[in-house]
Amino acid sequence: MLSFVKYSKCMFFKSRTLDWESKVGSSCLPCISKHCYVGGGYELYSIECYVTVIRVFIQVRTFSVIRGLLVLLHKPVLKTDIYCICSVQVVGRGCYGNVWMGQLIDQCAAVKQLSLNNRQNFLNERDIYRLPMMEHENIARFIDATERQLPGKAPELLIILEYYPLGSLNNFLKHKSCNWPEACRMAHSITRGLSYLHTERLYKPAIAHRDLNSRNVLVHSDGTCAISDFGMAMALSRPFSGPLEEETAAIAEVGTYRYMAPEVLDGAINLSDHQTALKQVDVYALGLMYWELFSRCSDIFSGHVAPPFSLAFEAELGSHPTFDEMQQLVARERHRPVFPASWQDDPLALAYLKLVIEECWEQDAEARITACCAEERMKELGELRPLCLSVVSSLCTAT
Ligand SMILES: Nc1ncnc2c1ncn2[C@@H]1O[C@H](COP(=O)(O)OP(=O)(O)O)[C@@H](O)[C@H]1O
Ligand SMILES: [Mg+2]
């Protein structure tokens, strides 16, 4: 009986082994003993056969585990019934279409609606969101992307995201100022999102956003932020094939003029290392966003009233700066948004804040800090206390 069991086991693993071999080729299994194949009788049954069996077992198991992992990483998209999305109200308007607050069967969602003319942008954004390991608390949560045609209507492309009730950072700052801990928390969370985006992980390529600005950052109800709008984003693992003019232009000349780094405005981006160069371009825009965000931090203005929200360079160039104006101001004159006077006299927290902002928007792209480094800096900044707050709290304790 015992020998029968051993014999059957041996035959079973023989057939599994052959099955495996037919899938992956015998060269992948150099360790398999031929004893298992010939005869298959009890007389050839040996310790070696046991070892072989265990090895095959491990390999078959490993194969299934890896396959399982890959299936998981190629996340099956959570299918929504696209005909049941009921649009409630417009919550945002971007360059490519409207964003609606919609009601799915059991949840509220934001539905970005693009026309067929913007298919390239749609496909790019969808493909970036669908990359493995794109779930992160500081990256907008993707639900689905699909095309639909309602009866009597033109076909439309939809990107469905979690709905962020506080809207974009830009919108948030227009209507609300924040205190020091809130500003630091927001700045840290945006930077954490960017740092994650820029970092290559096991199955996730490094990604450059290429249109980072306060309209493309969403605010969670807990006051942290998530980066969104990946219509221009680019996965950076593909080696740049060479200075083909079309490709060079497609890589370099992208983004919103206001937030374009000097090297982009000047057409002087270093394409020989485009991965680093595109990350540096994102970090420049991050510096401008810090300026916009902390300019609405009431704690660091005398009298604790922050001035109304202003976009970077709005004071200098108004609401719709042209490419040429930006090029002149930022690339040629090396001008940057001015720090408020009340930020001058703090030797610690605000001096550090200004330093970090300057390290991000450096004229020389090589001298800019990385997003990962900026994340560290923002964490440290959150632990500092601006002088004006210490004065107020010491006055409170004295009285
Ligand atoms: N998930 C969301 N929740 C709430 N508001 C959103 C959401 N996604 C986008 N919005 C709003 O819509 C605006 C435009 O969205 P965006 O994705 O940037 O579109 P575009 O690619 O056209 O610029 C954002 O600035 C924001 O105000
Ligand atoms: Mg946008």
UniProtKB/TrEMBL annotation:
Catalysed conversion reaction: L-threonyl-[receptor-protein] + ATP = O-phospho-L-threonyl-[receptor-protein] + ADP + H(+); L-seryl-[receptor-protein] + ATP = O-phospho-L-seryl-[receptor-protein] + ADP + H(+)
Pfam families to which the protein is assigned, alphabetical: Pkinase
Protein kinase domain sequence ranges: 85-381
Enzyme Commission number: 2.7.11.30
PANTHER family on file: RECEPTOR PROTEIN SERINE_THREONINE KINASE, TRANSFORMING GROWTH FACTOR-BETA RECEPTOR TYPE I AND II
Protein family (similarity comment): Belongs to the protein kinase superfamily. TKL Ser/Thr protein kinase family. TGFB receptor subfamily.
Name of the protein this chain belongs to: receptor protein serine/threonine kinase
Lineage: Eukaryota, Metazoa, Chordata, Craniata, Vertebrata
